[in-house]
Amino acid sequence: MTSSDSERAIVFISKATPGDDALTLWLAPRLEASGYKVFADILGLDAGDSWRRKITRTLQDESAKMLLCCSDETLRKEGVLQEIAIASELAKTLPDPNFILPLRVRKYKAVFGIADLQYVNFENGWSDGLTSLLASLERQDVPRVSKPCIQPEWGTYHRRRAITLLDEAEVLTSNWLRIVSVPDAIRHIVPVGLVEADALKKALSDFPYPLVEYGNGFLTFANRFDFDQHLSGFGSFRVEAETTYGEFASEGFAALEIGSIVAGRQIVDLFRQAWEKHCKAEGFLEREFANGLAQFVPTEGAPSGERIPWGRQGQRRSSMLRNIARGRLWEYGVSARASLFPFPHFRLKSRVLFSDFDDREVPVPIGDVRVQHRLRRSIAGAWRNKAWHGRLMAFMEVLAGESPYVMLPLGSDGHILVDAMPIQATSPVSARQTHYLDEDAEETDVTTLSGHFEDEDA
Fold first, then answer.
1. Is the peptide bond prior to 183 cis by the omega test (within 30 degrees of 0)?
2. Which DSSP category does 269 fall into?
3. Is the pLDDT of residue 346 over 80?
4. Contact between 344 and 179 (Cβ < 8 Å)
5. Whole-angstrom Cα distance, residue 310 to residue 401?
6. 16-20, 55-59, 394-398: the lowest-pLDDT one
7. CB of 186 within 8 A of CB of 242?
8. Eight-class DSSP state of 232
9. Distance CA 372, CA 356 (A)
């Protein structure tokens, strides 16, 4: 039904401070946009208010529902437990058996007063949780106003918490690696004579250089002798056509009826293969993710709990690529995606994989993608930006060694030369660091391997 200012018309959010502030600031204005009146202690207290008295009065006298943020951390808070007790007693006097609506923010152990109550699941995504919650509020006929109004104070509160910009230049490090040079010749190589296609395809899985199937042969930067050497059991090969890399990237290959758009995709594929084949040859581990492979430093190169030094002389730091958190092994890895715009480069995407220990204490990757997702949010999500940056730089330190470049072989006579140092840019302003960490604090700060994290899941 609709109501303007009925006696009980408030949706009361019971939460922990500051643990549930992020969810509350996201949820409250969306509830108001749907016509509900919302109270949360973030905004509901004015200067001079007795906070406990006002919270109690609002809950006892004005609330139509109590939305209870549920996680083990929140349900240990004394104030939250008191609100549960008040709401439980109040529910006995109201004609509403569903006065308390638990919102499962993270997995929790039930406490007295809510043990048998069905929760709304916000753990797997806030947007999904909101959809379910709105459906429940409508089914249970919670009063709404005829003209929804979002309190402007939510935006004001966001602005107060915003990071202050300083009029000072700051050097920023990207996740882009510039491709410095590429061999000039790209070829279409075809087998001479009849060849059993399936057998050849199987043999090519171990071919050390990138190639793309096209027509009756392969597009590749490798030369004919590379094919003859590694595929000697299939006869000989010949170069059917050849062009320069520059022409292929900008115009395509007219002799093979390949346009520039298709040519660009084929180059990107060849570059991706070059990265993956090089990492594999260097002993890096491959892990399959939903949208491609990721590479991880082998255990002997980055043992659990060991720091990897990185950085220039005089600016050396260190970061971990593998460690134990909450009884699980986490490993940091990287996926590389090539791009030709606005210039040739690799874009690196950070990956974190969690493993359980079996009876032999050998880590086994967790196969349930939902569990992986929750662990990334709860463990890796608490890492500061400085920690993510440090792990990326440590990964590149292992991959490049002492060289300022990474050389990705494309054939016996050519390779892609890639900068090992990500591209940097200078911002004319900088952000005040509200959680400043010293050079190695990303591993010793308690929030690195614990804490909580939420996202909007928009």
1. no
2. H
3. yes
4. yes
5. 10
6. 16-20
7. yes
8. G
9. 11
Give pLDDT tens digits for 182-231. Answer: 999 999 999 988 778 788 888 888 999 999 999 999 999 999 999 999 99
Contacts with 16 (C-beta within 8 Å, 6 or more apart), sequence order: 69, 71, 73, 74, 77, 79, 80
Q: What is the DSSP letter of 448?
A: G
Sign of the dihedral through C-alpha 312, 318, 319, 322: positive
Structure tokens at 162: 């915003």
Who's near 68: CB < 8 A, 6+ residues apart?
14, 80, 83, 84, 87, 100, 101, 102, 103, 114
Which tokens in the block code for residue 118? Answer: 């069905």
Q: How many helices (H) and strands (E) does the chain have?
A: 12, 24
Burial group, residue 361, by CB count within 10 angstroms (0-12, 13-18, 19+) = exposed
Q: Give the total residue count for the chain.
A: 458
pLDDT digits (tens, 9 = 90+) for 278-295: 999 999 999 999 888 999
Is the pLDDT assigned to residue 3 strictly greater than 70? no
Tell me the angle at which helices 21-33 and 153-161 cross, rounded to the nearest 10 degrees.
150
Q: Answer with the residue of higher pLDDT: 155 or 109.
A: 109
3-state secondary structure 331-369: EEEEEEEEECCCCCEEEEEEEEEEEEECCCCCEEECCCH
CB atoms within 10 A of CB 345: 23
Are the beta carbons of 143 and 8 closer than 8 angstroms? yes
- Which residues have C-beta within 8 Å of that of residue 450, sequence separation ≥ 6? 325, 326, 379, 382
Contact 358, 421 (CB under 8 A): no
**Nearest residue to 447 via CA among 456, 430, 434:** 434
Q: How far, in Å, CA of 323 to CA of 450, rounded?
A: 13
What three-state secondary structure class fits 393?
helix
Backbone angles phi, psi at 410, to 5 degrees: -110, -15
Residue 180 has pLDDT above 50, yes or no: yes
